[in-house]
Amino acid sequence: MDDDDDKPQLSAETFNILQQFYAEAAIKEELLAKQNSEKIPFLENWQLSQFWYDDNTIITLVDIILNSVSEGAHVALISCPSLYKHLKENSFQKNIKVKLLECDKRFAVYEDFIFYDYNEPLNLPQDMEKSFDLVVMDPPFLAEECLTKAAETAKFLTKEKIILCTGATMEDMAQDKLGVKRTDFVPHHKHNLGNQFCCYANFDISNKC
């Protein structure tokens, strides 16, 4: 009898699933390597209301984040993917852990990506509740429904601290939903927006940047 007859065999269906899994993993690894090595940015998708921060805003916000948390802190980024890479590259300074909650699956190449749709604000793993020392958020639309649902997510995730970047027109609602106040820091984007943009927080960030 051939010894191979005693070895477990994969069904054709299982084999195809494995092949697909490895193919997707290889594509993901290739895209990430290319994005890192060639510094290729993800282009804005305006249909998703994506407007990336400019470099100075990214640097300043990451400094604020790092100066607002303790060693080993957990930070969640909600719908602000342009912050992720610079924050991740500097996370070693305080050994912080970062999660990116985002609906754009292009960012799934990042190991910390979690798919997030603001229309389902609490459709997240239950063990994430109150597990983040700081939540930084930039809801994609300047609309009451969007901010209200994103606020649900932020309050579910955070232990306390929240930073919100959104339009000046949302100030009263932001204070009502999240208890945040406008700060002196003004975020800017690579492409100028027609709406005045502001940074809000529920703690003092004036000495953090």
How does this structure look, described?
The protein is an alpha/beta fold. Helices cover 33% and strands 18% of the residues. It has helices at residues 12-37, 55-68, 84-90, 144-157, 171-178; strands spanning 74-78, 97-102, 113-115, 132-137, 158-167, 181-182, 197-201. Helix 4 (144-157) runs parallel beside helix 5. The protein is globular, with a radius of gyration of 20 Å. It starts with 11 loop residues before the first helix and ends in an 8-residue tail after the last strand. It is found in: Cytoplasm. Belongs to the class I-like SAM-binding methyltransferase superfamily. EFM5 family. InterPro entries: DNA_methylase_N6_adenine_CS, Efm5/EEF1AKMT1, Mlase_EEF1AKMT1/ZCCHC4, SAM-dependent_MTases_sf.
The overall pLDDT, averaged over residues, is 85
The fraction of residues in strands falls at 15-25%
Total count of helical runs of at least 4 residues = 5
Radius of gyration: 20 Å
Topology:
Layout: H1 12-37, H2 55-68, E1 74-78, H3 84-90, E2 97-102, E3 113-115, E4 132-137, H4 144-157, E5 158-167, H5 171-178, E6 181-182, E7 197-201
Parallel strand pairs: 1-2, 1-4, 2-3, 4-5
Antiparallel strand pairs: 5-7, 6-7
Q: Short summary of the structure?
A:
This protein has 209 residues and is of the alpha/beta class. It is built from five helices and seven strands.
